[in-house]
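thought: fold this chain, then report.
action: predict
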Amino acid sequence: MTPEEGQFALRTAREVIEKWVRDEERTKVGEYPESFGDEHGVFVTIHTYPKKELRGCIGFPRPSMPLVDALVEAAVSATHDPRFPRLRRTELPHIIIEVSILSRPREIDVKNPSEYAKNIVIGKDGLIVSKGHTTGLLLPQVATEWGWTPEEFLMQTCAKAGLPADEWKTGRCKIYRFRSQIFNEGQPPY
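observation:
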């Protein structure tokens, strides 16, 4: 994605969030860059400003619909992330939005689970841990924000999936990595 496409994603996410919080109506996106017709995974993250505390983060890890549609759905869903109270109108001037556009997840192929950590690049790779119907995902920026090692990143992704933290060492789960382009408002636009 180009910087201009990233700015389009941020503007669109902001418009969708504001329209949903104010009127509970979905924004209809008119014209959009051609690349937004392609299928991509995407996450929309809402942070408070200026403290940058997480306020909501929802998305689609796998490409399953055109990016423009996934962006709208993720933006609406982030306003009522079940971990937090619904976003209120009074909060709109005090949030910043981040959009992460994901590459297709690829399974990390190793002969021995101890090799997983050597195949993860902190700050570049996001992780998905999957076992049966249980899945956990952490975006690449999470490991950087917390200063995790690859082993800690694996443990935390297992925990996010509701699995024991050392489940990645057993060989009984699948681990996928993906990359993402991250676009961030930096500060509220008002």
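thought: worth noting. Residues 3-23 form the longest helix (21 residues).
final: tokens above.
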